[in-house]
From TrEMBL:
Its main location: membrane. CDD domains: TM_PBP2. Keywords: Cell inner membrane, Cell membrane, Membrane, Transmembrane, Transmembrane helix, Transport. It comes from the Bacteria. InterPro entries: MetI-like, MetI-like_sf. Residues 68-256 form the ABC transmembrane type-1 domain. The keyword Transmembrane helix applies. It comes from Paenibacillus gansuensis. It is found in: Cell inner membrane; Cell membrane. It is a multi-pass membrane protein. This is ABC transporter permease. Belongs to the binding-protein-dependent transport system permease family. The chain crosses the membrane at residues 12-34, 67-86, 106-130, 136-162, 183-202, 208-228, 235-258.
Length: 277
């Protein structure tokens, strides 16, 4: 009787999981169909298939490849700079700053809470005066505004439970600051650093408002092409662009989830610290 109850609960849990998966992925089902459809009109159950949209994507006159390169370059640069800027702030908040810690964290999360269009307009006015508007560097700096707070919060959660005694022990054995970071801190950061990198990448990859306001149309990214195609009403091109837009994000999620399951110390030998290095 007890086994039957356990099996019924397992079946119920499996059904709920399948329904949730179906609910999440069902909106994406029409995208590959649209990308291969020349036309799909009522009452046709099956659309007329064509590779026209995919040919247009990779044609010489297409802006898609340039947009993909611009989006990838921006997202990668924003991810790296976000970690570099968030690391000292998160470490200080997690280990040293005790007075006013909550107030500082609230101020850091302000760019996430305030409507994006308000920030984009204010940043646009500021960048116009600084000569950063309509430039790649200006778009890059604007993408850091929503990306850095996420990185700080993720890394802060790590340092809030971090035992600095590990570093002290290694320093007593003669290790320098760089050795301590490489041998102690960096392996432990591998549990959260890929996730922080992933969030920053996805924020920049999907950013539209800051790119439009600060870039002024001089820098074409994939989200900008998506919005312009949406207004045209061409669902065939829209489905193709959506698939291209989702692929890097899906690949990063898969590889990051695999990397997060690995132990940073597994398979590594214990190195003796050389005090002369």
């Amino acid at each position: 009787m007890r086994r039957n109850g356990i099996k019924s609960r397992e079946i119920s849990g499996l059904l709920v999981t399948l329904l949730l998966i179906l609910f999440v992925f069902l909106p994406f089902v029409p995208l590959p169909v649209w990308s291969l459809a020349e036309q799909w009109r009522f009452p046709d159950v099956v659309p007329t298939l064509s590779l026209r949209a995919w040919h247009d994507m990779f044609a010489t006159h297409s802006q898609v490849m340039d947009a993909v390169v611009n989006s990838l370059g921006l997202a990668a640069a924003v991810s790296l700079l976000s970690q570099a800027l968030a690391y000292p702030a998160a470490r200080a908040l997690g280990l040293y700053v005790k007075r006013g810690n909550k107030t500082i964290r609230l101020l850091l999360i302000a760019p996430i809470l305030i409507p994006g269009i308000s920030i984009a307009i204010g940043v646009h006015v500021l960048f116009l005066r600084l000569g950063l508007s309509d430039r790649w560097i200006g778009v890059l700096l604007s993408h850091l505004i929503p990306a850095v707070p996420y990185s700080i919060y993720l890394l802060y959660g790590f340092y809030a439970g971090y035992d600095i005694g590990y570093e002290k022990q290694v320093r007593l054995l003669g290790a320098g600051k760089l050795q301590t970071f490489r041998l102690v801190e960096l392996p432990l950061l591998q549990s959260v650093l890929p996730l922080s990198f992933l969030y920053s990448f996805l924020i920049s990859w999907s950013q539209y408002l800051f790119t439009v306001f600060i870039g002024g149309g001089s820098l074409i990214t994939l989200p900008m092409l998506l919005f312009s195609t949406l207004s045209s009403g061409d669902f065939t091109l829209l489905g193709t662009l959506c698939i291209i837009f989702m692929l890097p994000a899906l690949l990063i999620v898969v590889f990051s989830s695999i990397g997060l399951k690995r132990d940073g110390y597994k398979g590594k030998e214990v190195h003796r610290v050389d005090p002369n290095v």
